[in-house]
Structure to design on (666 residues):
């Protein structure tokens, strides 16, 4: 029996040493990030909040990381993809109800005449959103989004939208989760729209997606089956000052890491860094006209102006897409 | 080396056999539940949804279980505990601002004259809730709740409120989580109130608590620090038809198991059982006047009438507290 014990001890020692060697020789967790200040800031932050006994240690339950979606986890040009979904839905719906065809704003949408659509102010856009995002059960809406995602292609990049996500961010999400973080989306986009793909695309389950929403009503359908019916009234806009409000409402805990890309993320970044203890605020700066797009202070989509100034003044990590990202999009499948 | 291999094989075989023996002799996961139909329904349901390859297998990501709080996870008599918190807060606030003392509805609250308070209809109650639940930052409110929970005692049971939770339900929550379920609270109670104790009391983190809420505004305090300020306007009532709406908004996935105790849970139970595949709906029936309270169809608090009829008709599991629970409250500390 004592011989067996000795052998057991040897076996355990061998196993442990192999384990340690593996840990030391571990591969780069962020291979699509170029070495530099941004990558280092992430690695340093994760190291210090996970170092047990260290002065900056944060319990796993409090390792909340929030990410904007449009322009932070996936692209947002030439316009938010949810709007492109709405335009495609108008086309599909007009095929079913040809009477809509000659009515504005649908006529402009079908003609891809965004100028005419915009000329009507927000009203035309709201009508398009109401037509395509309400008047149906949540299950039916989710099925439409799912169908669109599997068939539609981005107008200039010709990729499925689920491949318009950023490879470096996928690695970051995985790296954070491997270090005990819970990762959330906090986006101005529609919460139900995002939930259809967030789990498959980012590994973020529906209950960790915070977004804008319309009023939903519980009712029994014609057959007496309970369903949730989407109404056209807007209920919550998860943008700007709405983001910390949404974080409070849905998550109930202040993030220690937040990642955005536009002025709509400013208050989320302020709220995150306003807590005590270690905090990391990051901004994607779209500087890469060749591989993606280059835009900031004057862009209609993803305008980054005030948050860029405040971020620079406060030492937030400004991620320069062109310099910091080795690759932008994942390899096509 | 071959000798070492032989010993390793022996060690592994020994370890595996010990493991299997432990699994077979595993202790009852629900020791505070008496053997009977209710307990068996739970055990059978969990067994079938976790049996890989079985016809009723449910992926862990979809094992969503939702629990009402008041009357389901902790007691709710003589009135909802959040209201008792509000009454105690009035007392504390009056000590700070004596001018409030002679004003209604505060005078009635201080005199514990619930009849006079109720005579004013909802208005008096809303004023009490507004005084104690708004006009402050979320952090300050959370601190008040936390302080109250550590000092206040239930008026008749003389226990701290955090020990007014149900021992059988604590075991059920643990058992579900051990079987890959994600457990959520879906309650008419205030979401911020519940989040203060849900993690410690039930092991449910803030982001898995769905409840009623008031409007919250993001702002910078006098020193320029970001804070969330609680306003008195009600924003969302997570009760009755609001429960499936809240589930859709916060969780984004239909539960496969839901547990309630009153007519306010009816729509949550309908929505849960309305999905395809295996579903389990449970109702706590308060039948134990000796150890807890006995009430149902005519109670002002936790009225159980329509849901009891529908539950019986549809074969939902009606948990008879007196018969099904070996113990009600956890042993005092």
């Amino acid at each position: 029996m004592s011989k067996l014990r000795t052998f057991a001890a040897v076996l355990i020692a061998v196993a442990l040493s192999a384990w340690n060697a593996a840990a030391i020789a571990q591969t780069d967790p962020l291979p699509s990030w170029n070495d530099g200040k941004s990558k280092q800031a992430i690695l340093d932050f994760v190291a210090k909040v996970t170092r047990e006994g260290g002065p900056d240690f944060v319990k796993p339950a409090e390792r909340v990381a929030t990410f904007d979606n449009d322009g932070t986890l996936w692209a947002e040009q030439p316009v938010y993809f949810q709007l492109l979904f709405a335009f495609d839905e108008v086309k599909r719906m007009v095929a079913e109800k040809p009477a809509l065809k000659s009515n504005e704003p649908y006529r402009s949408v079908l003609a891809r005449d965004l100028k005419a659509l915009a000329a009507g102010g927000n009203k035309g856009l709201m009508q398009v959103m109401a037509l395509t995002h309400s008047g149906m059960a949540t299950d039916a809406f989710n099925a439409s989004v799912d169908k669109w995602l599997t068939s539609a292609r981005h107008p200039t990049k010709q990729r499925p939208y689920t491949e318009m996500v950023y490879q470096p961010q996928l690695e970051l999400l995985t790296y954070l989760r491997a270090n005990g973080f819970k990762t959330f989306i906090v986006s101005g986009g529609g919460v139900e729209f995002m939930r259809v793909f967030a789990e498959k695309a980012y590994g973020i389950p529906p209950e960790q997606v915070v977004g804008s929403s319309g009023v939903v009503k519980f009712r029994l359908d014609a057959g007496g089956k309970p369903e949730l019916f989407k109404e056209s009234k807007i209920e919550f806009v998860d943008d700007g000052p709405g983001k910390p409000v949404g974080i409070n409402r849905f998550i109930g805990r202040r993030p220690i890491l937040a990642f955005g890309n536009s002025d709509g993320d400013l208050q989320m970044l302020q709220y995150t860094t306003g807590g005590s203890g270690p905090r990391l605020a990051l901004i994607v700066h779209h500087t890469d006209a060749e591989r993606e797009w280059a835009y900031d202070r004057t862009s209609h989509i993803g305008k980054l102006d005030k948050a860029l100034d405040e971020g620079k003044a406060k030492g937030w990590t400004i991620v320069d897409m062109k310099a910091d990202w080795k690759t932008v999009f994942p390899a096509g499948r």
